[in-house]
Amino acid sequence: MNRSSAVRRQHGCAAPWPHRLACATATATLLLLCAGGLVTSTGSGLAVPDWPTTFGYNMFLFPWSRMVGGILYEHSHRLLGSLVGLLTILLALALWRHERRSRVRWLGVAALAAVIVQGVLGGLRVVLVDYSFAIVHACLAQAFFVLVAIVTVLTSARWRQETGGKTVPDAEKVQRLSLLTTILIYGQLILGAVVRHTGGWVALHLVGAVLVSVHVVVLSGQIRWHHADQPVLKRSANLSLGLLVLQLLLGLGAYLGKFTALGTALSPFVVALATSHVVVGALLLITCAVLTLWAYRCLQQAPQAGQAQLVSERVPV
């Protein structure tokens, strides 16, 4: 057994395949989110009126020559969804075969269950012509992306090599703040899905944007000022701040395109803005989710003065 294999076995994984499959699944999911955003932005959700077939064809045998206009967006979305489903099955099997940590194995099972439910929701959206299924479908897609991103981090060599954290007085503060920021971003994406599909809750979505912005800025500042010696935290903080700025600009463009006369004049550009807004929002979500994981991994809460004195009294001289 070589040294790398010994390290993998020591830290809970005997093969690199779970991590490779997790990376592939996360990448395919990002492409699927982009395709889903295009479907919504172009109003192509019902371009293919049947499911699970496509105009009566087996979905995988539908002629490429007929994939034009809205059919191209919707059918491509279905094919990417099938790819993500296949990769998730392989990921769950690889985790169950090679992963020693039971929680990580069950995360794979949870991802598999989520992708099945996601596929059914997408089909019901078409069959029942109900926008509520489209909203739930969009929200679950973001949650699934986070789940796959978490599995990707937990199966990485970097995670296995990190054996201890830095003891600092503000560890719990950073951990709680990063978790709260992730939850707020997810809530904001839910509001965004409602706005995109119904045109309602715009004011609440704008309030959510302010809350998310404040939390991301504060979290990034806390890490940059006090934990710049932790490269993985610093990189995530810098990335989240950059994604936030980009997301706000895209959100402004998408708002102007959807609710003003600019949308009619610049429709292809508005579609690109709205779709990019969805994708960047998803990237911001998983960045903060990953940051939360590393905050719990890299930082440990220092005991308070009273606790430290109590510990010192218990230690024999």
Q: Roughly how much helix do the residues carry, as a percent range?
A: over 70%
Unreliable stretches (pLDDT < 50, length at least 5) are 1-8, 308-317
Tell me the Rg in angstroms: 22 Å
Percentage of β-strand residues: under 5%
Order of H and E elements: HHHHHHEHHHHHEH
Number of helices: 12
Strand neighbour order, sheet with most strands = 1-2
Give the total of beta strands. Answer: 2
The pLDDT mean sits at 89
- The dominant shape is globular
How does the helix and strand content classify structurally?
Answer: mainly alpha
What count of structural domains? Answer: 2
How many strands, which pairing sense, and closed or not: the largest β-sheet?
2 strands, parallel
Q: How far apart are the first and last residues' alpha carbons, in Å?
A: 44 Å
Layout: helices, strands, pairs:
Blueprint: H1 3-10, H2 17-41, H3 69-98, H4 102-128, H5 131-154, H6 157-161, E1 166-168, H7 171-198, H8 202-226, H9 231-259, H10 262-265, H11 267-298, E2 299-301, H12 305-314
Parallel strand pairs: 1-2
